Backbone:
C-alpha cells in the first residue's frame, strides 16, 4: 500500500514536470500571440498619430501592446533589414505617421488605401505597429 | 561697402554650411539582445530601431520601443516586458550622444572605419553614461553602423529574480543599423 502511494506520487511528479517543461519551452514557442485572433481597436492612421502626438501617456495606456486595425493611405513602402515589408500610413509631409512592419511579404504601393492590423509597440518618430497583416 | 560684401559672404557660407549638414536616418535598424545566463538561451531582436546621425558633427541618436523586442518564446517575452523592463511604465529606451571621431570616416570611400561612440544610454527610465567602440561600414555611399556592448542590468534599476543566474547580470546589445 505504502509503496503504491509513493509510486503514484512519483508518477504524478514526473507528469507535472513534463507538463511544465512542455508549457514553458515548447507550447510558449509554438503558440505566440497572433494578430489575427485578437479583437482589434479600429481607428484611422491620422487619428492614431494625432492621439500619440497630443498625449503620449494616455495613448500608451490605450493602445500599447493591443491589436490596432488602422485605415489609411500608403505614403511610403520599404523593406527592413530582415527583408520584411514596411509601409508608412498617413499624410505626406506630416511630422509623424504610422509605421507598420508586416509579418509576411506584401505587395502594396504608394497611394493605396488600405486597412491593416498589427500590435502597437508605441511611439518613436512614428507610431510603430508590428506583426502586421493586410485586412483589405 | 565692405560690410555689405562681408555680410553677403556670411550668408552664403552659412547656407553652404546648412546644406553640408547631412543627416542619415533609419527606422528599420536592428538591435539584438542577449542575456543568456545558464542553459536556456535568452535572445531577442528588435527590427524597428529609429536612428539618426549628423555627418558633420557625429551627433547620433537611437530610439527603441521595448515591446518591439521579439523572443522565440512568448512566455519569455512576457516576462521580459512585465517583470524586468516594465515596458508599460517605460516603453522606450534611447541613446543620445556623439561619434567622437566622425572625421575619420570618409563617406565617399567604401570601407570599414573604427568609430568611438560616447553618450547617455537610458533604459528602464535610468540614464547612464556609456562609451563603446563600433564599426562604420561604407558601401556605395550608404553607411551601416555596427557595434556590440555590454550593459550591467542592475545599474539601470532592473531587478527581478534570476539576474546573475539564469539571466546574465551583463546583457549584450548588438547594434546593426543601415542608414
Residues:
Amino acid at each position: 500500500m505504502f509503496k503504491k502511494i509513493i509510486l503514484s506520487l512519483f508518477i504524478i511528479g514526473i507528469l507535472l514536470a513534463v507538463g511544465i517543461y512542455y508549457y514553458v519551452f515548447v507550447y510558449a514557442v509554438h503558440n505566440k500571440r497572433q494578430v489575427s485572433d485578437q479583437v482589434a481597436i479600429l481607428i484611422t492612421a491620422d487619428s492614431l498619430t494625432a492621439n500619440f502626438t497630443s498625449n503620449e501617456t494616455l495613448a500608451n495606456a490605450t493602445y500599447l501592446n493591443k491589436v490596432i486595425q488602422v485605415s489609411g493611405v500608403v505614403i511610403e513602402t520599404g523593406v527592413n533589414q530582415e527583408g520584411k515589408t514596411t509601409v508608412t500610413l498617413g499624410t505626406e509631409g506630416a511630422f509623424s505617421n504610422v509605421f507598420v512592419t508586416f509579418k509576411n511579404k506584401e505587395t502594396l504601393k504608394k497611394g493605396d488605401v488600405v486597412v491593416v492590423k498589427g500590435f502597437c509597440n508605441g511611439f518613436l518618430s512614428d507610431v510603430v505597429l508590428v506583426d502586421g497583416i493586410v485586412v483589405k | 561697402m565692405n560690410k555689405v560684401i562681408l555680410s553677403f559672404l556670411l550668408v552664403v557660407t552659412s547656407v553652404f554650411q546648412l546644406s553640408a549638414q547631412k543627416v542619415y536616418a533609419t527606422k528599420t535598424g536592428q538591435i539584438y539582445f542577449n542575456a543568456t545566463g545558464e542553459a536556456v538561451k535568452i535572445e531577442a531582436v528588435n527590427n524597428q530601431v529609429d536612428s539618426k546621425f549628423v555627418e558633420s558633427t557625429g551627433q547620433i541618436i537611437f530610439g527603441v520601443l521595448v515591446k518591439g523586442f521579439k523572443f522565440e518564446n512568448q512566455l519569455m517575452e512576457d516576462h521580459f516586458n512585465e517583470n524586468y523592463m516594465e515596458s508599460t511604465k517605460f516603453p522606450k529606451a534611447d541613446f543620445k550622444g556623439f561619434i567622437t571621431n566622425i572625421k575619420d570616416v570618409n563617406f565617399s570611400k567604401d570601407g570599414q572605419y573604427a568609430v568611438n561612440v560616447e553618450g547617455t544610454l537610458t533604459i528602464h527610465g535610468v540614464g547612464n553614461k556609456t562609451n563603446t567602440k563600433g564599426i562604420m561600414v561604407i558601401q556605395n555611399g550608404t553607411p551601416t553602423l555596427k557595434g556590440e556592448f555590454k550593459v550591467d542590468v542592475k545599474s539601470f534599476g532592473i531587478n527581478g529574480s534570476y539576474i546573475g543566474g539564469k539571466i546574465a547580470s551583463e546583457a549584450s546589445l548588438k547594434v546593426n543599423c543601415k542608414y
